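[job 0412] stage=fold_complex status=start
inputs:
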Amino acid sequence: MTTKLEFSLDQIDYQILRIMQENARTNNADIARELGMAPSAILERVKKLEQKQVILQYNAKINPDALDQKLLSFIFIKAQDPIGTQKVGILLAKIPEVQEVHDIAGDDGYLIKVRTNDAAGLVDLMRNSLGKIEEIISTRTTIVLETVKEEQKLVIPTED
Amino acid sequence: MTTKLEFSLDQIDYQILRIMQENARTNNADIARELGMAPSAILERVKKLEQKQVILQYNAKINPDALDQKLLSFIFIKAQDPIGTQKVGILLAKIPEVQEVHDIAGDDGYLIKVRTNDAAGLVDLMRNSLGKIEEIISTRTTIVLETVKEEQKLVIPTED
DNA sequence: ATAATAAAAGAATTTTATTCTAAATAAATT
DNA sequence: AATTTATTTAGAATAAAATTCTTTTATTAT
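[job 0412] stage=fold_complex status=done
writing structure:
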């Protein structure tokens, strides 16, 4: 079910990825200057990286506080999915406040990451959204007091 | 210790954030067209959103498979920090493969999110990086089999 | 070596970003 | 309610960047 994709990135691609990972709004001209190449060449490569699905998307990281979303929680969910499906996972993914849904090893579970305004918002979500999913057997919630680091930067290889 | 910041966003700001959250490379001209405003006005607002720390950064989401990082894990870490400090959290944050570090409620713990090439890479990390942090009492690792959803999009209010 | 393929540079054109000023709107003060 | 003040937006002009196309260079395979 997993499609095998062929990537094949060289050192220049890695450099572009490194720059884009730091600031996705860096323009071609700047990247070109930094790498000592022509802007047109950079453009070609960036387009290829997008086509090859190496770069999946560009997103703006918004301050949760600015939107008054002060509570971050992780919830372990035990569920009885029909074997081989991710029915529950797909339902969980549809909830807007749920940022991540991971199918985890051991006791038929999911781990989800949820952002709500406050504790009341979390309770609401558990009652109204999770409560609607019948396959869920139990949940265990972990409240985040403070986030020290939150990035999605990958470690980019130096040599090949 | 928490700095109280004043945001104060209007409906236009929300629309800009909505667009930027979907595609951070959307240019001012396009946003202006979509919102029926002048590009200069959009530029002003985007700059202000950056200044006010509403938009924190722009990042490119890179396909972990393209960099051969196939294993995602969450690790609960029990540690004895000096009271009121996050010494361990700060040390954890320095490990490049650690994407997230959350200080969680209950038994002096952290929850971290880690991306490695494979199981061997995870073992290495636990031995070489976590192993160096003496304050760590114990760890409990959860392996992700498959990720159904992984975004950091926030729910943006419709009215105010 | 030579041909074939792919990548990069360079130049020209289109589009966008940016700056500045003026107009309009909203907020505050009297 | 009227006037002032501040904020926001539009519009025009310029600078910068994106994009396209052609030529050149580099790579790879035969």
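[job 0412] summary: Residues 11 and 70 of chain B are 40 Å apart (CA to CA).
[job 0412] exit 0
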